[in-house]
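Re: weekly structure request thread

Next one in the queue (244 aa):
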Amino acid sequence: MKKIALILAALAVSYSAQAADASVAASKPAYNVTTDFSYNSEYVFRGQKQSNSSFQASAEVTYTNFYGGVWTNQPIRNEANEVDFYLGYGFPLQNDWKIDTGLTSYNYARGQTFGGKTGLSTYESYIGLTGGNCAGFTPSVYGYYDYKLDNYTAQASIGYSVPLKQLGTSLDFAATCGFTPNTGKYNKNKANGTYYGAGVTVPYKLAPNATLTGGLQYAYSDENTSNYRQNYKLYYTVGLALGF
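Done, posted below.
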């Protein structure tokens, strides 16, 4: 569910969006549909580059505290694409905090299974504490477990928004760090893995239900399990989010 480029943008935007939308929250229906379309100079997942420039799209439906959606990365070059499905539930707590839990299915049409076959799918559950506001900062902590890869991941993120009222936008900063012990049956001889990310996103509302965003992101991973062999990545994103 949670790709690092989207996490960086979403966490930082959440605080400014909550303030801007508070006046209309009461009139919203119990369900909500959101879509997102973006161009990314690179696709990076948990600090590791997965493809060069690509288009990404997502659609999500929420009903009360339930949500589900689909997300895809479609490279411009002849590289492997990805389609993910997720379903989750947010248990509300006090002061806008919530426990977020769910399941994500990652699907790679051209990925190789451990048996050498084409077409790889993995399934990952997650649970996290998110949504609160601490003196303007929006922290979150998540834990993930991939059932097929038999591997755990822990991730912490924090966002902070600086309003630019005269320009009708804001500077939404976010940082992420993650750790995987690589203790699963397929990673017994691998060292622990650590990744970091930081970025800034600038959202601009074109209409009440349409937001244009641009961002600059930085990512680092001390692992090189992808085909690109790059520890440090600097990339940009441009996207349009629509709500219905």
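The chain has one helix and 14 strands. The domain at 4-243 is CATH 2.40.160.40 (Porin).
Next request, please.
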